Structure formats: C-alpha cells, structure tokens
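Reopening this ticket.

The earlier resolution said the output was attached, but the attachment link was broken on my side. Pasting everything inline this time so it's all in one place.
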Amino acid sequence: MRIGLALLLMAALLPTPIAFAEDPAVQAPDVTGANTVVVLVAPTPKPAPPVKMGREMNGHLFLPSHVIEDPFSYTAFAMFFGMGSGNALADTITLQPPANGPIFGPPQREYGYTDLGIGVLMNVRILEYLSARAALQTTAFFGGGDGAALVIGSGARVTGVVGVKGSLPVGEQFRFAATLDIVYGPVLGVLVADGLRNVIASCRDPVTGCTIAPGEFLQKSNTFTWVGGLSGAWAPLPYLGLTANMSFIWPTKTESGAASVSQNGYTLGGMADFDAKPLLAWLPLGMNAFYSITSPIGGNGVTTTQDFGFGFYYTGRRDLALGLELDWRKGRLESQQVSSSTIAWVNFRYYWN
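Inline output:
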C-alpha cells in the first residue's frame, strides 16, 4: 500500500513527462502542453563601413593636378614628369664674316626650344585636418637649331618646397583650406647671345679692348619665396567636383653681383573634374580641365604667367590617381623672353588615406 501511494503521488506531481533531447536546441512547453523548440541563432556581424579617402567628398573622388592646389588633408606620394616644346620671341641673329661677327637686332622672330620637368611630392597627414608636405622639382629648357641655342640659350630651375596645410569640412559638399609654403631654388641660365653682345662691344672699344668675363655667359640667381594661400572644393554630385584657389606670392631674388630684389604677386586658379565611374561602373575614366594665372602686384612684381589645359585619369582604384595632363603655358623664360609652350605631364599619385 505504501508503495502504491508513493507512485500515485509522483504521478500527480509530474503530469508531463520529462524529455531529454540530444539536440542542443532548447525544448519548452507551450500553452497547449506540446513541446516548442527554441533555436538560438548568433547575430550576423555588420559589415565594416568603407574607408573614406582623404580626397573624397559627397561620394566624389577629386582628381589631382600639377597646377591646382586642393584643400584636402591626406597622406600621399606623387611623381610627375613633363616634356614638350615651345617658342620664344627674340632678336634676329645675322651671321657675318669673322671680322665683323654676328649681328643681333630687329626684326624679332620666334625660336624653338625644348621643355623638360620632373618632380616628387610627399604629403603627410599629421592630424585629421592638418598635413605637412615637401616637394622637389626641376624644370629646364634648351634652345634648338636655327640660332636658338645662341639667342635663347638654356636654363634650369631647381625648386624645393616645404609647407603646411590646415583644412576644414563644411557640411558634406564643401571643404576649405589655408596653406603656408616656403619655396627656395637656384636658377641657372646660359645666355650665349648676351655674352657675345658684351664681348663684341668691348672689342670694338679701343680703350677697354677685348675682355671676356665668364659671368656674362652664365646667369645665376637664387630665389626665396613665401607663399600663403586659400583653397576650396565643392562636390555637388558624385561624378563632379569643382576646385578653386588663390595665393599671395612674395619672392626675394638675389643675382650674382647684384642686390636682392623683392617682388609681389598673386595666383588665381580653378579646376573642374569629372569621374565617369559613378555613372558607368565599367568605365573608370576621369577628366579635368584647369586654368591658372600668376600676375604682379605693382610695377616691380612677378612675371605674368598663364597655364591652362586638361587631363585624363584612371579612376579604377580609390588609392591611386594616374593620368596624363596637357598644359599650355604663356609667360617668359628666365632670360625674360616672351614665350609659349606645350607640355605633356605624366602624373602619378598614391594615397594611404
């Protein structure tokens, strides 16, 4: 009897049989008394947001240029190489018998020359909106045939730049920056025509006689320049970007055997760039068009120079900008001869952020 009562008591306390499941899922009774299986599922991790490049704004990746200054803060390494040709206006040279020597004088005519340029740039982002940079660039020209080597001569300029840039975004479509750069570089020029003029003039003077000074054939000067600038960018659409900049130039030029001369000037420039990839994913092609002018302030200012052109870039990689720019320049050579040139530039720039 006692055993029977114990079994009845256990049956009353346990109306539902206990089930031991081998499956790791948890079994729980529902309101009807049936067993409900609850499966614990781990949450799916969210994908990491894409890294935004330093030159990216409103979905648009701005293209670089060797002419226009951008307002972005990033870390990047750049190389550029240019080659082209031009014409300079100078006095006509007439070759006479050795007793008389060459004659330089009007009318003026154009002489051809070759242009070369190469440079490297390193930009490092120190803080989110502050970066520093250093650059080294060399440009040179060489007079060609038909008397150009005598009249135009040859020249080379080596330029070193160090500077800082502070930039600030305004909303999702605008960015502005202020820059301060120190530019230093020697200028060398071989002026055969000027040297010959001076030698001929001295030989025709019975008092002084023929004197030849090597410095009359070689022009050397050093230029130290402060450059302060402002720049801004606007990205109204993912495939379109606009950039503008202005800067104040204060160079001090020192020539061999002469006193230093300070000059003032300003530069204004603008660029529009278009990227086809946001519209056509299979077309990683970008294009830019730019214009820049440097003008003097006052009567003793810098030489007026204009640059305008366009370029094509590969835009298939966010961390790479590789393109070819065609630049037309109007200004003066180091010998102060009015000139115009056409130069093709290969631009390479790799971005880390």
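Reporter confirms the inline version is readable. The two ends are 86 Å apart (CA to CA). The domain at 56-351 is CATH 2.40.160.40 (Porin).
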